[in-house]
Amino acid sequence: MSLKQLILKCKRRDIRAQSEIYHLFAGKMFALCLKYSKNKQEAEDNLQDAFIVVFDKISQYKFRGSFEGWVKRIVINTALQTYRQKNVLSLIEDNLPDEVDLEVNEEDISLDFLLKIIQELPERYRMVFNLYVLDGYSHKEISHLLGIAEGTSKSNLSRARLILKEKVELNQQQLNVGLF
Fold this sequence. Notes:
The protein is mainly α. It folds into two domains: 3-86, Rna Polymerase Sigma Factor, Chain: A (Orthogonal Bundle), CATH 1.10.1740.10; 111-179, Winged helix-like DNA-binding domain superfamily/Winged helix DNA-binding domain (Arc Repressor Mutant, subunit A, Orthogonal Bundle), CATH 1.10.10.10. It contains eight helices and no strands. The chain is elongated and about 60 Å long. The model is unreliable at 88-98 (pLDDT under 50).
């Protein structure tokens, strides 16, 4: 059955079609949820909540643009809504440079380590970092998504980069000490 046929069946609340759509996209969307969550359990909750929204709003999908992109936007918005409700996206005044250089020696740093330290970022920084660096949103778009000022978005990104830079440098120092 084609994706379009599945979507049409989902619009008629067909449970089997919903199950197929879920299984088609759950893996990719779970990976996306992990980026915006502090742990696996929270990511699973966000994924579940997002698919409830997907199936509730699927009648609004008009077959313009990619369905996966439409689902992705719902997943991101659902995860962000969790954090807006927790009120963790408040402004923190830091006098930080606009850009922090983060150089990573790919031979010394594993992808697992990078994902781990990104997940360890405070929620407000992780949200902005993921939206800007990993998902390509502008600061203007982030400000609308999170309900914060553009300056706050820039400040949070700078702080996130600084924290990541410190953790990467510490890890590299530990690796260098271990070599001698």
